[in-house]
Each structure stands twice: as C-alpha cells, then as structure tokens.
Amino acid sequence: MYPAHGPKFPSASPFPVYNYFAYATYYFSHYIVCIDPHPPSVYYSGGLCGTRNIQHINILSYRTMELGSIVDFLENKVILITGATGFLAKIFVEKILRVQPNVKKLYLLIRAPDTESALQRFNTEAVAKDLFKLLKETHGENLQKFLSEKVTPVAGDITYEDMGIQDSTLKEEMWRDIDVVVNVAASTNFDERYDVALPLNTFGARHVMNFAKKCVDIKLFLHVSTAYVSGEKPGLMLETPYHLGESLNGTTGLDIDQERKIIEEKLKELKCDDNANEKSIKISMKDLGMERANHYGWPNTYVFTKAMGEMIIGHLKGDMPVVILRPTIVTSTYKEPFPGWVEGIRTIDSLALGYGKGRLTCFLGDPQAVYDVVPADMVVNAMIVAIAAHANQTFSETIYHVGSSVSNPLKFTRIQKSGYLYFTEHPWIEKDGTPVVVGEVTVLKSMASFHRYVALRYLLPLQVLWFINLLFCQAFASTYKNVKRKINFVLRLVDLYEPYLFTKSFYDDMNTEKLRRAVRDSGDEEKYFYFDPRVIDWEDYFQHTHLPGVVKHEFK
C-alpha cells in the first residue's frame, strides 16, 4: 500500500490496482493496494513496511459492521474483570458504572486472601482515587450503596485453576450469571522474573479462559494484550493472531508446558546451590525469561509471555466469541472521566520526569522515530465497543490494534518540544525553592554513541574513583559500589528498552478503523465512546494534558 498523495511505485511492481471502499473511505484515502503475482506488499511513507497475503487481509470481502446501542447493550449485563485494581481496569470499571448505572453486576477479581481484603483493596486503590470523582459527584452519600449493589469484589488469583476462587457457591453463581469476561490482569514489567511472568501472563490467560468456558451464558471473552507481541521488526505490524508453537524468528519447538518445566528445573537447580540467595535467584529468573524470549525472537519476557497467552486463548476458545485488544503505549486520559488522569510511570514518563527535574543529560534514540501512544480512555472505549460489537458472534478471534502510529504518527521531536514548553512555563521547584531551568539535551542516535558517552562521562570517572578508593584503603568503597550499581542499572534499562528507542514499527489498525466507523454510523454514541487518535493534537495533549497529569499524580 502507498499513501495516495504521490510516492513512487517500485519499478518491479506491475501497474497497481486501486481499491477504495465505502466502509473506510478515510483509511483508504491514505493507502493504495498493489496487487501483483506475489503476496501484496504494504507500503507506507514511501517505503516497504510489511507483507501480507491478501486472503488474510480479506480486503475484498470486508463487510460493514453493524452496531446497535452500546449503552443499551450494557444494561443488565454481568461482567467479570480480572486485574481490577490495575490502571486500565479501573478506568474500564468507572466508565461502565458512569455511562450505564443499570449494568446488573461487575465481578472484580482482585488478588487478596479473602473477600474483605478484596473489598478493602477496591475501596483504597480505586474508589478513593480522583478517578471516581464524577461518580462521587453523581451519587453523593449514596455512592457506597450504589457500589455495593453493582460491584462484587472477588478474592482470587489467575495463576490458579478457577482463578483461585475458593467459595464454591460464588463460583456457581458466577458461572450461571456472567455474560462477558474481560481479562486485564498481567505483569507489565519488561524483565519480570520468568517464574512470575509465565504463570500470570501465559497460564493466567489459560485459567481465565477455562473459567469463562464454564459460564453457561457467556457472550464474549475479551483479552487485553499488547501491540508489542509483534516484537521489534520494522514495518507494518498486522492485526493477525499467533498460534501454538509459533515464534518470531522461525525457531521451532516452542512448547508452553515445557517452558514451565524449564522454570521448575532452574529453580530446583538454584535451591541446590549453597551460594544462591534470594537476590541471585531473582536475577537468575529475570535472566532466564530474557534468554527464553530472545531464543524465540521476542525482545523481552513481558511480550514473550503475553504472546504465549494469546496462543493459548486462540487454542482453547472453541466457538466462543473472542476479542484480543492490543494497545500500544498507554498514556493519561484524553477526556474522561477528566483529562490527564494517570497512574504508574511509563518509559516515556520517566524521561519527562528526569527532564523536568534537570536530571536528564542525554537521550538515546532516533528523534525522528514514531512513538505509538494512545490515551487510556480511548483504549477503554475501544474495549467497550468491541464487546458490544462482537457479543454472540461465533467466529475466529478478532485482533484490534489500538494505537496511533498509522493514523496520527507522533515523532519524538514533538514530545521533546512539548516537554520544553511545559517545564519552561511550569518549572519543577527544588526543596530550596530554586526553579529547575530546562534546556536542550544531548541526543545520542546509536548504541555506539551511547556507550562512548557513558564511558567518557561515567565509566572513566568511576575508574578514577576505584583507584582513589584503593589509595585510601577502601575509604570510598560504599560510594564506589553505589555509583557502579546505578550505572549498571541504567545500562540494563537501556538494553531492555533499546528495541523501542529506535523503533521503526507501525501498527496496522484496519480492524480498529472498521470498529470506529461502526460507532460513527450507529448514532450519537461516538461522543461517549471515542477512540479515534486522529482528533488529538499531540503537542497540545502533552503540554496541557499528559505532562500536567503526570506531574500532579506521579511527580514525587
């Protein structure tokens, strides 16, 4: 595919066939499909992005999606949400309760030893947050009564069969009543311990799916994954499923049950090692996850285990309607329940915080690289619309990329400009009352330049400190160890995030565009369930919404 505004076609291609479709006029005004004797190639910004067999794209048979009232669909529904105290899940819960107070019940699976503890976590980590302020304004002193009628916190853990729910009566009730299962529970740490990530992100998906299959009136299973399961390949990443045993680099032999045995054997080996301690076991488990991920072509443990989770869901679903939602980098809310709500520090926010506090002296990455980000409320709206659109439709799972790199690309230079403008106008104030003056940072455009920079600025002085420490009989041993630890930590982080700092990936959102059009065509509900990133002015969003939100909610 080529942008329709005039790039050259490759000389090897025959004259292209132009396909424009009524269902996605806007989308295809940007692309032209080139059909030749080989699998059609997908072109973007004048270069080859990726290839896809036309039968998988299924462009010529794309049908208009019909969608009734989303709010009406939610009425009287019973929904199970896992990972219910997480960032996205809380926004999802708040949105459902706000737009459809006549939802019948929300079962919230919360990791806790008992129901009372689960309820306490929900109240402390969700209801007490600013996120729920519109519901507080609406219901006033009756909020707790409303929540007690609509929300049932459930103590459980998806790393166990039946999600760790002990109460057999409660399980029978859930299996009888649940209409929709939404699996959001996950560990999102890139280098999580393998013995933590695999049970949660992979086998957790299996346990939630098996629980859903016991629900007698189940209408849909929605699984929140990540767009980065596609790895670090350049080009256009497609909305296609992964299958059991599949790898990114062609390596055969991926067996999910065998991966669990590898963990068990490694842990047994470590426990027999007299020199092993809690810290060394933790490091070994982190290293094992990265090694297994790299072996099959994934850049880190997180995306590897999430990809395997998708494989399991596809394998087990049977005739159950399944939607897999793959968001990109999720940022603060764009509009609802109010602009700028965020929880937890993401990579992009860590850079902003370091810059605002005057601690970011350099940036590693391509200033012209496109960073695929999407506000959290848009992700949640896409989740809700997908549920309403696919409930009771028995066909192979549908994949949705929810991001912005294709429809509204954001280059790092625009983030950088927004950060400079925001922190110039609203400088961080040090404890002594001095405002931090921000300025230009050194941009390192390759790993080689980064290592040279670190060597000259940090490693060389560290060697001097090591020598001084020897001369003064270990007087500076503690300082030396602390500095060395911090440098090693930074180097590990850089290795971890390198694939995303120089990313040249774009995330195809053809399926998602079809979903957006269905909302536009269904009536006036688009204003409630918006998720079109084309409406976002990125510089305005970062300067006036996201960065103020990060500073307010996360700047400590």
Automatic annotation (TrEMBL):
Keywords: Lipid biosynthesis, Lipid metabolism, Membrane, NADP, Oxidoreductase, Transmembrane, Transmembrane helix. Gene3D superfamilies: NAD(P)-binding Rossmann-like Domain. GO terms for molecular function: alcohol-forming long-chain fatty acyl-CoA reductase activity; alcohol-forming very long-chain fatty acyl-CoA reductase activity. It catalyses: a long-chain fatty acyl-CoA + 2 NADPH + 2 H(+) = a long-chain primary fatty alcohol + 2 NADP(+) + CoA. Its EC number is 1.2.1.84. SUPFAM superfamilies: NAD(P)-binding Rossmann-fold domains (SSF51735). InterPro entries: FAR, FAR_C, FAR_NAD-bd, NAD(P)-bd_dom_sf. Residues 458-555 form the Fatty acyl-CoA reductase C-terminal domain. It comes from the Eukaryota. One of its GO terms (biological process) is long-chain fatty-acyl-CoA metabolic process. PANTHER family: FATTY ACYL-COA REDUCTASE 3, MALE STERILITY PROTEIN 2-RELATED. Catalyzes the reduction of fatty acyl-CoA to fatty alcohols. Belongs to the fatty acyl-CoA reductase family. This is Fatty acyl-CoA reductase. The lineage of its organism: Eukaryota, Viridiplantae, Streptophyta, Embryophyta, Tracheophyta.
